[in-house]
Amino acid sequence: MNPFVLSAVVALAINGVFFAYAVVKKTDVVTDLSYSLSFGLVSAFILALWNRAGVVALVPAALTVVWAARLGAYLFGRIRKTKVDHRFDGMREVPLKFARFWILQAVAVAVILAPVAASVAGTGGFPAIPRKFGIFELVGVAMWLKGFIFEVTADAQKSAFKSSGKPGFIATGLWKYSRHPNYFGEALLWWGLFVYTVPVLSGALWLSAIGPIFITLLLLFVSGIPLLEKSADAKYGADPAYIDYKRRTNIFIPFLPRR
């Protein structure tokens, strides 16, 4: 099976199963779990079915399994504490409206995973000459590692801040340099996987760039930053400290606070 087709089929199947459970139980506790599990299982299938593609070609799939396991554990632990995801208020009781979210999530997973699929597709699945680890692979892994560290660190800092019981918003650690450092890290790691695949890209495989472009646009303009900015404005919009924080701090790319 084509790895791109596999991504779509597995992502749709996983989200279909979780959608059925969510509708019956009228719950959104499993939404984040299904998201990370989709990435992890698709990548695990690629590791198993394209194992003859060579170690270098399979690195993006292996890194995605690591990322998905960490993110899934973090998000599932968070939703178990909050018990509800208010993004789905007004949707849980309307199956057709709720289904739209699950379909879009499955499509998003398949699109974002395009560089992972391209890494094995570019070798033909069984390269006559084993792929070597070169400069693009080195830069790609370095970008992925930096993005992964950013995401994990930012999530840990925010969890610690909330657990401390301190009032207000977090503006320390990585959050001093970006209002959404975890999202920056996530976008960076996917761009890293795309850079990693560049040596085997040709023809239509260059379209795998849609993966990092899609997740970056999603985080910047759709379901990531806009929702959190709106929520934060509603909570802290009248707080002079928050107004100053927004004025001084980059929204996405970490940088020194402005004077």
Following the backbone from N to C, one meets helices and strands in this order, namely HHHHHHHHHH
Poorly predicted runs of 5 or more residues: none
Number of helices: 10
Helix content: 55-70%
Distance between the termini: 55 Å
Number of domains: 2
What is the residue-mean pLDDT, rounded to a whole number? 90
Shape: globular
Count of β-strands: 0
**Protein structure class:** mainly alpha
Radius of gyration over C-alpha positions, nearest whole angstrom: 19 Å
* Proportion of beta-strand residues: under 5%
Describe the structure.
It is a single chain. With about 260 residues, the protein is an all-alpha fold. The protein has 2 domains: about 1-130; about 135-259, no CATH class. The chain has 10 helices and no strands. It has helices at about 5-25, 30-50, 55-80, 95-110, 115-120, 135-165, 180-195, 210-220, 225-235, 240-250.
